[in-house]
Amino acid sequence: MIAAATVLVQLFLSCAALLGLFVLRGVLIARDPWEPINRRFLFGLQVTMMLFAARVFMILTGIEAFRIFVLLAAGLIPLAVILLTEGLLRRHAPPAIKFFVCGGACLAAVTSLWYSDSIDPARLFTLLAFQVSGFVLSGCLILSRDKASLSAQENATVVRLGLSLLLLIPVAIGDFLLLYIDLPIQFSALSVLILCWLAIGLGRPHQGHRTTLINLAIMVMAGGSVGGMIGFLAELGRAGTLLVMAAILTMLFVVAILSDARALRAEEQSLGLLRYLADAKTNDPMAFLRDLQNHPLVDGAAVISEERLSDLQPAVLDQIFEAAPVLRKSDPPQLGAVADDHIAYLFEHYAATHVILAMAQPRVLVALSMPSLTASPQAELELQVVQRMAALMAEKGRVGHG
To answer: Quick check: 105 and 76 in contact, CB under 8 A?
Structure first.
C-alpha cells in the first residue's frame, strides 16, 4: 500500500513541479525573454524542468536511461544558481568560484553518461557535495552583497533567492540521502514550487516582502498541520504522514502559483489603457478616440457626436457632465428628474455602462459597455485618465486655433 502510494505521490510532486516551472517560464517570457536576468533565470528553469521531466518518464516507463538526464540536470543546477546570483547582484563572482562551478558541471555531465549505479554511491555523494557547495557559495555572495548598490526591489529579490537556497540545501541532502535517512519520497519538487511562487510574487510588489513571507509561513504551517492531523487520525505512520503532508503542501502551492499568475496577468491587462495613453502618437482628440475604439479593453466603444444628441437638452447635459465627466451606470449623480431621464436615455440607447465626456465644445461623448469595470478601481481610474487626456487635447486644439 505505502509502496504504491509512494510512487503515485512522487509522480504527483514531479508533475506539479513541472507545472509550476512552466507557469513561471510563461511569466518570464511574457515580460521579456531577452532581458539579461530573465535569460539566466530561464536557463535555470529549463535545467530544472529537464530534471523533473526525466523523473516523470522514469516513473511512467521504468526506463532507467532517463537517469542520465536527472544526473545531468542535477550537475548543472549549481551553475544555473551562480549565473542567476551574478545577474541579480549585478557583479561577477570571483574567478575561483566560477572555475569550481564550471569544472564541477563538466565533471557531472561526463559522469551522468554512466547511467547505471555501479559507480554509486561515490558519484551521488560527490554530486551532493557539489550541489551544496554551489548553494553555499551563492548564499555567501548574497550575504556579502553591497545593499546600497541595489534598489529596494532588487534587494527583496535577492533575499527571496537566498530564502529559496535555504530550502534547497536540506531538500537536496534529503534527495541524495533518501535511502540512508529513510524518507519515502524526494521533496525537492516542493521546494521548487515554493521558489516558483516566490518568483511570481516579485511581479506584484504591492503585496510587500514581509506579507509574502508571512503567507509562506502560514501555508507551510497549515499544510503541515492538516497533513499531520490526517496521518495521526488515520494511523498512517511516519511514511504515510509525510506522503499526505507532501501532497497537501504541493496542492496548496500549485493553487497559489496558478492564482498569483492569473492575478498578475489580470493586473498587466488592466494597465492596457495606461499603456495606450503613454504610446499615443496624436494630439487630435478625434483621432485619439477613433484609435481608442480599437483597444481590446474598450472594444466596441461608441463615439457620439453632438448631432446625435439633438434630442437632449444641452443645458442638462452640461449639468450632468460637470458633475460626472465619467458617468457610471452603477453610480449616477443625483441631479433631479430631468437629469435622471437624460442619464437613463444615454445608458439605455447606447447599451452602455460608462459614458465619458471626451470633448465639451463641440460635445463628443464615448459610450462603453464594460460591466467588469464596475468591480475594478484601477480600471475606473484609467477611464478618468482617458477622459482627462481627451479633454486636454480638445482644449489645446481650441487654444491653438484661437
So the answer is: yes
